[in-house]
């Protein structure tokens, strides 16, 4: 899978050199590129923002640098999923992560200030080969789209075959079905600060363990914990 981020802070994505994603990149399972939006500006100050039409506080990211940056990607790859990060977008979840894990090239538009001129999404919705997704990572506001892109990249790429060492660990995870949570997990020692691991997990009875896990998963899911 190809992943390209467009941002005024391309260095924000250095964590993607670490851990499983770093390894997947070195194995060419993921081809990651971080583009600096300011490289697509035309003035001496490399401006990317201007005052909002209609007035109000803050600055809005101008459409043209975004247009030039996205066009530069489309020159090399005419089929992309363009993800515009915005708190006003559709809420991200595991289902969406699964859908996006089948994409060939994800392009993340990471806003700053008061966000990106709305016409950017409107324009690319009309460009053939581009699927536009406006996505929110939750009902709160962060300072920029970079951290939201990192969340989505991590949730999506761990579903690509080969990224997680043991694919079985994906089978019973939380949110595989809407609202379903995984059972509680424990490791050694069996007693930690006077708290015991549930007896059944030490029994070696796989049938009982499976039953206990299913019941606990159901209980947790109903509580929404
Ligand atoms: N004024 C905007 C609003 O009220 O909807 C918030 C702008 S926010 C300070 C700057 C950027 O951070 C956004 O353009 C977006 O890219 C990103 N962002 C903030 N919260 C987000 C969220 N919950 N999900 C996705 N992106 C978010």
From TrEMBL:
Protein name per Swiss-Prot or TrEMBL: tRNA (guanine-N(1)-)-methyltransferase
Classification lineage: Bacteria, Bacillati, Actinomycetota, Actinomycetes, Actinomycetes incertae sedis
EC class: transferase
GO biological process: tRNA N1-guanine methylation
Primary site of residence: cytoplasm
Subunit structure: Homodimer.
Gene that this sequence comes from: trmD
Keyword flag Transferase: yes
Enzyme Commission (EC) number: 2.1.1.228
